[in-house]
Amino acid sequence: MALSEKARATREKIIAAAAELFYRNGYHATGLDKVIRRAGVTKGNFYYHFPSKEALAIATLDWQYERFSTDIREQVLSRGTNALQTLLNLLDYMAGRQKKQHEEGQILGCYFGNFALELSAVSPAVRDKVNAVFASYGELIEKLLRHARKKGQIRESLDPGHLASVILGQIEGAILLDKARHQPGNFDQSIEFIRNCLASS
Fold this sequence. Notes:
The protein is an all-alpha fold.
């Protein structure tokens, strides 16, 4: 059954409130009462849209994925550059997000990576959702690498699928280290390393 405009707005308020609290405080440290208060809804409103906290978590992952993907399309992929430069622009865009978090006083890490750390061992549904998100971004990186290889921008001997996995793992690991240290330097160093490796190809 399709939701009314009012119901859609209420659902969006709950997801936005939960995403902010989960991101800043973590999933386990965020009780549903906090989400309900932040969203300004009743418990009845909440349970009308979400049968459980886990279902809410999955909804926030979808919501964040759509928002991040839209930003990437509009701010990176829409630019008329070659495949290799587009990939480098994507890395720069991610670095900019990391620096902005630091300037705002709190490095929160990767929303999807945070959920992987907290819930992948206990929630198969969340684990599957996070894996789907990472797979999507890995496929984007691989696609750009394949185009770059076809155009002679990287070595023909490089395996785009393998290299995409390495790049994704490198940047996710760097984001985690920066969150732990509360400094953005490791992410910058990792991007510079990737940039140099691709440039020498």
